[in-house]
Write a structure and sequence with these properties.
elongated; mainly alpha; two-stranded antiparallel ribbon; Ribosomal RNA-processing protein 7 A; 5 helices
């Protein structure tokens, strides 16, 4: 509930606030990378956090230390209400819904920059290929067996090849499992047949012992 804007508003009574930095734990501030995307690599911090309020003048620090004597600072007031409960949940859910058009535009822009970067690297490599450097070494680049295929098509072919190999391994395992079941079934049938033959042999031997004509 207590975000940067709220902290800046609360401490504004002490003096002009220059900046408010919210961190996960106390300590020297780490250099934060500028997020290029609003959809990816977003880190959500949960639990308690630490805030550093920087005033433009030293007098603001002294005034902030004396705030505890003036009473409790209210985050939510009539003029600046803070949403809580179900209202906050609704806002959080609405903020979590991704705009598909905006997401598509960002992904397309990223892919265009990526393709441009790859094209520049390939053009630079092709330009430098075969040209010796200052020490006389010649840089040799390894090209694929099908250099004429686009990068995406070559990647698709690799995926299809992996899927084909995976399917072949699965079929082979299924064949081995079927063969094992058939061998086990035949073994059980032979045991049953032998058991029946032994049972008939034993019955015949018993009948021969009981039948004594002399």
């Amino acid at each position: 509930f207590c975000i940067k804007d709220t902290l800046s508003r609360l401490f504004a009574r002490c003096g002009c606030v220059q900046s408010v930095d919210v961190c996960e734990k106390p300590g020297p501030a780490e250099k934060k990378e500028k997020l290029a995307s609003k959809f990816f690599n977003r880190k959500t911090v949960t639990g308690f956090q630490v805030a550093y309020v920087v005033f433009r003048k030293p007098a603001g620090v002294q005034a902030a230390k004396a705030l505890s004597q003036e009473g409790i600072l209210l985050i939510s007031t009539e003029s600046h209400p803070v949403k809580t409960g179900i209202s906050k949940w609704i806002d959080n859910y609405a903020a979590s819904v991704v705009d598909q058009e905006e997401l598509k535009a960002e992904v397309d822009a990223y892919m265009q920059d990526y393709d441009k970067k790859i094209a520049e690297e390939e053009a630079k490599a092709a330009k430098e290929e075969g040209i010796p450097d200052e020490e006389g070494w010649v840089k040799v680049t390894r090209k694929g067996r099908k250099p004429g295929l686009p990068r995406t098509e070559a990647a698709n072919l690799r995926v299809l090849e992996r899927e084909k190999q995976k399917r072949a391994r699965k079929e082979l395992l299924n064949f081995y499992a079927w063969q094992h079941r058939e061998t086990k079934r035949e073994h059980i049938a032979q045991l049953r047949k032998k058991f029946e033959e032994d049972k008939q042999r034993i019955a015949l031997m018993r009948a021969q012992r009981k039948f004594r004509p002399y």
